[in-house]
Write a structure and sequence with these properties.
Length: 95
């Protein structure tokens, strides 16, 4: 259930982040990104949920492949989500 709630909240925040960007609300978008980063970091304290979410990365909006896992030092999903979130933010700012 915790993993389901995580995915649901993550998807909602991702939609909010995109909506805020389209509306030009960069302050609100940054606040949403920080909340998402906090969620990703929280996985360090919940290895059970992290393990379950490893198979649900597409639902989180990411394609985290085996080669990338090795490149980033293993199975730390929270760190990978934070990294991917940063990449997504950079792409959005270049548009």
């Amino acid at each position: 259930m915790r993993a389901d709630r995580f995915v649901e909240r993550w998807q909602q925040l991702s939609q909010d982040r995109d909506r805020l960007y389209r509306a030009g609300d960069m302050t609100g978008r940054e606040r949403t990104c920080k909340e998402m980063a906090g969620m990703a970091k929280s996985l360090e304290r919940d290895p059970q949920v992290e393990s379950i979410l490893r198979n649900r990365t597409r639902e989180l909006g990411f394609e985290i492949g085996m080669n990338r896992d090795r490149d980033m030092g293993g199975g730390d999903l929270g760190r990978q989500l934070t990294h991917e979130l940063g990449i997504g933010r950079d792409r959005g700012m270049r548009r």
